[in-house]
Write a structure and sequence with these properties.
The complex is a heterodimer. Chain A is mainly α. Helix content of chain A is 71%, strand content 0%. By secondary structure, chain B is an alpha+beta fold. In chain B, a hairpin with a 2-residue loop joins strand 1 (497-506) and strand 2. Classes of the chains: A mainly alpha, B alpha+beta. Chain A binds chain B through residues 166-167, 170, 173, 182-183, 185-189, 192, 226-231, 234-235, 237-238, 241-242, 244-245, 248-249, 251-252, 255-256, 258-260, and chain B through 1-2, 5, 8-9, 12, 19, 26, 96-99, 102, 105, 108-109, 112, 125, 127-128, 131-132, 134-135, 138-139, 141-142, 145-146, 149-151, 157, 179-184, 193, 204-206, 209.
């Protein structure tokens, strides 16, 4: 067990717990302070780890862009769950998506990055904003209680950080090399290897040949329509079913309105 | 690759038929003419029967595994019974609701979900597995929410949907770790990676984490303990035919998915030194059956009681899976946990669908009876239905002479013979606890005061389904040989094979001869899942003679059936022997065998 990592995880849990919106008497400033401390500690840890990784104790640094995107991602993800106003949460979600897309580009997964932006920042976010706008017609002044106050912050933080801590411990277990040695196979390993090089501030593509096709749409298309043709068809069937189901559920309210209520629009 | 798609398409013929029928039924429900709309159920029934017949044909069977064929036949058979139970579905339960139009959609959803269950054992890819699980689940979310025009159904639908989406996220997360561990979503590649790791004596953390998350997520589908809490509310809130459907479709799909995924690991955990996964399964099994049965004791509502009983039965099947597959294909029932699990799955489906069908008929007669008091004394008015219900309940208890008894017997046998006696004890004790609440229903039907009948008109279809189930529960309980041989074939596909490697040394020459009978694969011989199963261990080895002239005979047991051409290469598994390592011929031979394998 890596105690430094465990302490960093616990600090992170504490800061999120403090930052989660409470109705009154919230400890945002303390939480933010702890959060900054945690981020600093995590960065130091990564620096040390990256140094060990390359077998050089001095000189090897973290990739600047990785640090930048990672910081933006962590901070905006915290804001997504901690900001008291739902609309701001949604906007921070866009920032998070952009930062993640940046990390994907560092891993030479351009397609993944673009799709992430198009789908999440484009499509899903618009839906979120619509839902938020429609759900709170009175503007930000009358945000409902369940939108302002976290229901069960202690349990939520506990569960998620125990999971996060376990995964982190497993990832950074033992020698820094053990993680890589665990499974050197397939595109994932190539991606992981690149990720480690980037972490260690090295040029990721010393030999660009084996990875030159990664993240290219052509490869994806060929795969989709040859090896994954059946799953693709199945996905089509699933989408059809979901559409029909949505219509069924939406239409059901019409005749049932006579039973359930007066058939008028529900009021807040 | 294109060839591959075509061959798997023929194996998927029953599922294609089911999905096409679903499309036709969907359109028929929207037909302008009433005559056509009345025919929707019949069309669905015919589609399921055609799929059943298609699954029986040799052409289809030769393109799929025996497990796939078995699951398709089971799904179509139980699906037919479920269609009969749901005959009047969308409107009979709800007198206020007179819109007959959307029953086409309802049956289409059932057929899509059945197609998903049916293709579950034919998947060969993690992505496909995920999509098949969703194909099972998404229609069930919809029918739970719309099967009944009451607010409870909508509440149940919301709960079921959100928790189901959460569980899907969890097992998808697990799949991503399995992918990260093996570098492929293809089952064959993942198996190969697991098998190359067999010598490590411990699975890498990514594999363990992936399997943990996948088991956790799928435990939602089978209503096993960490994610069981939704079951009571959803079973109660949904319309009764939908509840019957929920007790079969997601459960069968989930268990087959677990069998496939544990099959990927080569099941070597059941004999290997890494105990993480079997320990987890054991704890899950014990908690699931105990919590399910104890909470079922406290219920007065019949559907809630069935929900907890369904949780408990999942625990029994998990207990069977801990025992793992048979060591040798074609062996007896004693060691075969997978066969026991498949048998219990089939048995449980029959018993529970029968009980639900009888309940649906009674509810039609008693204004949607939910409480146990509502069906008190019903036997005087409806002796046939009450008898069917009683037979199914007795089988759920595990009375000798019924299919439920055989199911529990096989599970206990498998657990005892593989040394999991704690599980066997828990299964027996839980069966005794379960008897209490099942007998309470039987007592209410037969012993208590007659009840006042109401005059709601219902069709005879659920009663027909109940009678069919009861007949099969007794029939298979007394003469199970046909079902047993089918399940044997299905489970052999996961079982191991045994053979011998003989190393003969004579005056500086060494020779390896091996004898491995190929494992029986059942009727479907081609298998996309099986790769070279070198995951074996020596059961016994004998050395006769000295360093320069001797015969070493090793008996091997392998986790999977062997292909003939891989048998020789297993010579590399010969354990080192201090005497022979000094003979250069033996060393050279060993080296060459290793080179060939690598």
């Amino acid at each position: 067990m890596d105690y430094a990592l465990a302490v960093a995880t616990a600090l992170g849990a504490l800061s999120i717990y403090l930052l989660l919106p409470r109705g009154r008497g919230s400890l945002v400033k303390t939480g933010a302070l702890v959060g900054v401390l945690t981020l600093g500690a995590a960065m130091l840890y990564l620096l040390r780890w990256a140094g060990l990784q390359e077998g050089v104790s001095q000189g090897a640094g973290l990739n600047v862009f990785f640090c930048l995107f990672a910081l933006i991602a962590v901070i905006s993800a915290t804001a997504v769950i901690c900001h008291p106003r739902p609309l701001y949460c949604a906007l921070y979600f866009v920032l998070l998506t952009l930062a993640l897309a940046g990390l994907f580009i560092l891993l030479f997964a351009q397609f993944m990055a673009i799709v992430l932006i198009i789908i999440y920042a484009g499509a899903i976010l618009v839906t979120y904003v619509f839902v938020i706008m429609l759900a709170s017609p009175g503007g930000n002044v009358t945000v409902a209680d369940y939108d302002r106050v976290t229901t069960n912050p202690l349990l939520a933080v506990l569960v998620s950080f125990v999971l996060l801590g376990t995964v982190l411990q497993l990832m950074f277990i033992g020698k820094p090399r053990a993680f890589m040695a665990a499974r050197p196979a397939g595109p994932v390993a190539v991606g992981m290897a690149m990720g480690h090089k980037i972490l260690a501030g090295k040029p990721a593509l010393a030999d660009p040949k084996p990875t030159s096709k990664m993240g290219v749409m052509e490869l994806l298309g060929v795969n989709l329509y040859s090896q994954y043709a059946l799953p693709l068809e199945l996905a089509g069937i699933l989408l059809t079913i979901s559409l029909v189901g949505a219509v069924m559920i939406a239409r059901k309210n019409e005749p049932a309105a006579g039973v359930l209520g007066t058939g008028q629009m529900p009021t807040e | 690759m294109a060839e591959d798609v075509n061959t798997s398409l023929l194996g998927l013929l029953p599922e294609i038929i089911l999905l096409c029928t679903a499309a036709v039924v969907l359109l028929m429900g929207l037909a302008r003419r009433d005559v056509l709309r009345r025919l929707t159920q019949w069309t669905a029934v015919i589609g399921v029967i055609v799929a059943f017949v298609a699954a029986y044909s040799n052409d289809v069977q030769s393109h799929t595994t025996a497990l796939g064929t078995f699951l398709t036949l089971l799904t179509c058979g139980i699906g037919l019974l479920l269609l009969f139970s749901a005959w009047e579905m969308p409107f009979a339960m709800d007198p206020a609701h007179t819109d007959r139009h959307y029953r086409g959609e309802f049956f289409a959803m059932l057929l899509c979900s059945l197609a998903g269950v049916s293709m579950m054992a034919k998947v060969n890819n993690l992505i496909w597995l995920f999509l098949a699980l969703e194909l099972v689940s998404i229609p069930t979310y919809i029918v739970v929410a719309t099967g009944r025009g009451q607010s409870e159904a909508q509440e149940a639908g919301i709960k079921y949907f959100f928790l189901g989406a959460l569980s899907a996220a969890i097992y998808l997360f697990g799949f991503s770790y399995l992918y990260g561990f093996s570098g492929s979503t293809q089952f064959s590649a993942i198996t190969a990676v697991f098998q190359s790791d067999i010598s490590r004596h411990q699975l890498p953390w990514m594999a363990i984490l992936g399997l943990l998350l996948v088991l956790l997520g799928i435990s939602y589908k089978i209503a096993a303990v960490p994610l069981h809490f939704y079951a009571a509310d959803v079973y109660q809130g949904a319309a009764t035919p939908v509840t019957a459907f929920l007790s079969f479709a997601p459960k069968a799909a989930g268990f087959v998915a677990i069998i496939l995924l544990l099959g990927l690991t080569g099941w070597h955990f059941s004999s290997g030194p890494d105990v993480t996964i079997p320990a987890l399964l054991t704890v899950m099994a014990v908690l699931t059956m105990t919590i399910g049965n104890v909470l079922a004791l406290l219920q007065r509502n019949i559907k809630r009681m069935f929900a907890y009983s369904s949780i408990a039965h999942s625990g029994y099947i998990l207990a069977a899976l801990v025992a793992g597959p048979a060591l040798v294909a074609g062996g007896g029932w004693a060691h075969d946990g997978v066969a026991a699990a498949l048998f219990y799955l089939a048995a449980y489906s029959l018993m529970t669908v029968g009980a639900f069908a009888a309940l649906i008929y009674m509810q039609g007669k008693a204004d949607g009876a939910e409480d146990i008091d509502d069906i008190a004394g019903i036997s005087s008015e409806h002796p046939m239905t009450a008898a069917c219900m009683a037979i199914c309940l007795l089988s759920l208890i595990g009375m000798p002479g019924t299919i439920g008894f055989l199911g529990k017997l096989f599970i206990v046998q498998a657990d005892l013979s593989t040394g999991h006696w704690i599980l066997a004890v828990f299964v027996v004790v839980n069966a005794a606890i379960a008897a209490a609440y099942y007998l309470r229903i039987i007592a209410a039907m037969y012993v208590r005061e007659p009840w006042t009948p109401s005059h709601v008109r219902t069709t005879l279809a659920p009663r027909f389904a109940a009678a069919l189930c009861a007949a099969m529960v007794i029939g298979f309980g007394l003469a199970p040989s046909r079902l047993l041989s089918d399940i044997r074939h299905a489970a052999d596909y996961m079982a191991g094979s045994s053979g011998t490697v003989r190393l003969t040394v004579f005056k500086g020459r060494a020779k390896i001869t091996s004898h491995f009978p190929t494992g029986s694969f059942g009727r479907g011989r081609r298998s996309s899942l099986l790769t070279d199963p070198l995951a074996g261990y020596a059961r016994r080895s004998r050395l006769a003679g000295d360093q320069n002239s001797c015969v070493v005979k090793h008996e091997f047991i392998f986790a999977r059936p062997l292909k003939k051409d891989t048998a020789w290469s297993t010579a590399r598994l010969l354990p080192p022997s201090p005497v022979l390592e000094r003979n250069p011929a033996v060393v050279a031979l060993r080296m060459s065998a290793r080179l060939i394998v690598r």
